[in-house]
Structures are given as C-alpha cells and as structure tokens.
C-alpha cells in the first residue's frame, strides 16, 4: 500500500509563476446561509465558515460579490463594501489558505427580479 505522502493530490501545485498551492485540493463554490439577510453582508459566521475550510489548496468562493444589487439575479448574493469581504479573505489567509471569487452574473433574470 502506498504512503499517503506519495499521492499527487497532496503535493504542491504550481498554477502560474505567482500562484503555488500547497496541494491539489480545491474547495468548490458553496453557498453558506451565513450572511446578514438584510444587508447581504458577510457575517462573522461567514468568515469562520471559510476559515475552517482554509486547509484546502484553493477555495473558490461563491457567491461572487456583486457590483450592484440591481444585477444580482438573487436575493442572497453578497453585495457589500470590499472592507467586509476582506474580513473573510483575511481569515482564510491567516490559516495559510488561498481564496478567489467565482465569476457570476444575474443572467437575463436580474432585471425581472428587481422589477417586482
């Protein structure tokens, strides 16, 4: 039986000249209901959620921050000032993790959702 250290999954992954991941594990987009439902701001629970998963090589964060609430396409996408999102990023970086936002858009439904 091979030792766990021999698996490529746990070896570092060089994604580019500037981005080295500590392993090949990627935590895919997840939508934790841990945001403030009124302001859509990430809460302390949001930061803790991603901090707990920061051992993955890369966290792809979803939902991606919206530039405008009118373009969300959903009532629960995080749409807050960069300072609040930075708290989540800082928690992940503190544990040695890497994080990026998934690209997303409201699609064709965004104007109709906001016109209720």
UniProtKB/TrEMBL annotation:
Q: Where is the composition biased (Basic and acidic residues)?
A: 72-86
Q: Which Gene3D superfamilies match?
A: Aldolase class I (3.20.20.70)
Annotated stretches, region: Disordered: 62-86
Return the InterPro entries for the record: Aldolase_TIM
Give the protein's recorded name: Uncharacterized protein
